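At this stage, I put together one protein's amino acid sequence and its backbone structure tokens, which the following lines show:
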Amino acid sequence: DLSPGATQTFSVNLNATGMDGGTYTRNLRVTSKHPAIEGTVPLTVTVIGVPEISMSLTTADVGEVVIGQSRGAYLTIRNTGTAPLLVPGITIDQSDFNISSPSITVQTGESINIILYFTPTMTGAQTGTFTFHTNDPDESNIQFILKGKGVTPPIPGITAGSLTANLMTGQKSI
């Protein structure tokens, strides 16, 4: 019970779990029996959304690739957060590796497919590290490892052999 002219402070607990970033407005209904009153208090809540990166793989091996040719691995990047996921830059530590998209944006709840390529310029096993620089607060730099082996192209050749045929006069060999 409140005395006439007194005020009462109360707390309002809000839960923004799973809500997309944005401004939300609602009315809080306040009632009292002593004295009998009813009113509304307008509420405005600003939810700061957070992106969350999820990758279908963190490593792949494309196997043997002929020098000068390319082979790629598909990677799906998904945003499971509540704000757009920005990947403004992707760095690669080896020159024989490349990517189909140097920067990407993934909207909330969506995914995007990209291809990571290995194009060897020399023989031997190689590993490339792709670092995705994101606006995800707990995974601002996430890495993907791509492996491959550069091999020399096969060299076609002709093997000398011999041909023997015994023919009678006037006969032909087929």
Notes: The mean pLDDT is 90. The radius of gyration is 33 Å. The first strand starts at residue 22 and ends at 33. DSSP finds no helices and twelve strands in the chain.
